């Protein structure tokens, strides 16, 4: 399936990539906290509205048991 060198490269790449992502997230978290206040509420609220809308469309087109 994979040679030993490919497997080692894959594991090392994944580890370095995850470390880079975590480091960047920690570095940028201060900026995000000041610029994106209350966005979680907007995302949750929008998700509920969209799911409700799609549920209503399904109900009026097919009914719940279809």
Structure write-up:
With 66 residues, the chain is mainly alpha-helical. Helix content is 85%, strand content 0%. It is built from 2 helices and no strands. The radius of gyration is 22 Å and the shape is flat.
Shape: flat
Q: Nearest-angstrom radius of gyration?
A: 22 Å
The share of residues in helices is: over 70%
Fraction in beta strands: under 5%
Distance between the termini: 44 Å
How would a textbook summarize the main sheet?
none
Number of helices in the DSSP assignment: 2
What is the string of helix and strand elements? HH
Oligomer: single chain
Q: Estimate the mean pLDDT confidence.
A: 90
- Total count of domains: 2
Number of strands: 0
Which spans have pLDDT < 50 for at least 5 consecutive residues? none
Instruction: Please state the structural category.
Output: mainly alpha
What descriptors fit this protein?
2 domains, about 70 residues, mainly alpha
Offer a concise description of the structure.
The protein has 66 residues and is mainly alpha-helical. Helix content is 85%, strand content 0%.
Question: Topology of this protein?
Answer:
Layout: H1 4-35, H2 39-62
């Amino acid at each position: 399936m994979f040679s030993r060198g490919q497997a080692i490269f894959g594991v090392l790449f994944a580890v370095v990539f995850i470390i880079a992502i975590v480091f960047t997230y920690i570095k940028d978290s201060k900026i995000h906290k000041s610029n994106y206040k209350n966005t979680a509420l907007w995302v949750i609220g929008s998700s509920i509205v969209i799911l409700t809308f799609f549920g209503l469309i399904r109900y009026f087109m097919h009914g719940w048991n279809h």
